Amino acid sequence: MEDAIAVRGLVVDRGGRRVLDGIDATVPRGSVTGLLGPSGSGKTTLMRAIVGVQVITAGTVTVLGAPAGSAQLRHRVGYLTQAPSVYADLTVRENVRYFAALHGRGRAEADRAMTDVGLASAAGQLVGTLSGGQRSRASLACALVGEPELVVLDEPTVGQDPVLRADLWARFHELAAAGTALLVSSHVMDEAARCDRLLLIREGRLIADDTPAAVRAAAGVDDLDEAFLRLIRAGEAGGPAGSAAGEA
Ligand SMILES: Nc1ncnc2c1ncn2[C@@H]1O[C@H](COP(=O)(O)OP(=O)(O)OP(=O)(O)O)[C@@H](O)[C@H]1O
Ligand SMILES: [Mg+2]
């Protein structure tokens, strides 16, 4: 089966600077792919290109077999932006039902999405009165409620406690098991370890595209946190991945 996302030679300039510099990557269906990299490395920009809201300079981005941003993808791709995008003057339930309706879904799907993100008990609360973490989850419920084939989540677990994060990751894997493709950005290494595959970017270039185990092996360490530090620093030194392994 074709990949959910195929990015070829992607170049993006923002504010007169090259932000993505020749990205080639694929994201398979039925699995969770992590997108990692330092702050400012281009994760959000890559996600924007995938959901079709980013002007690109060169390359192609194919999503579910169609060019990114095509009208036919509107109901097939869910996107959680890095900053929550929900209506503050509506309740959680009203927000989620509104997004459900946009995707031809009903109350049952809305209830399911609110339960999935742990917000069933806050369903009647105005989004403007939620805590930051709750607001993020309300936004996540809106991204998931349309039951999209591809889910692009920009730091979905920021501000969430460990129990909620574990629950959310369990749900992501359930969705993957049902055939959904998920692309999830994160700064948290224990989350990276939960991914089936990892894309690691640094300064707009892909420096690793592999399983967590292979990333550890490439860096020559068992700890994924340390592996990323080594891969990032190896790139900064201009050497091949893993070349910093003997430093200190
Ligand atoms: N609207 C914009 N105009 C100009 N430059 C931008 C704009 N948005 C982002 N950039 C720049 O593009 C680069 C990549 O930003 P991006 O938001 O993709 O990074 P990121 O990896 O998502 O970072 P973070 O982990 O902090 O969310 C950064 O150098 C950033 O300053
Ligand atoms: Mg970002």
UniProtKB/TrEMBL annotation:
Superkingdom of the organism of origin: Bacteria
SUPFAM superfamilies assigned: P-loop containing nucleoside triphosphate hydrolases
Keyword ATP-binding: yes
Domain ABC transporter: 5-228
One Pfam family matching this protein: ABC_tran
GO molecular function terms attached to this record: ATP binding; ATP hydrolysis activity
Keywords tagged on the record: ATP-binding, Nucleotide-binding
Protein name: Multidrug ABC transporter ATP-binding protein
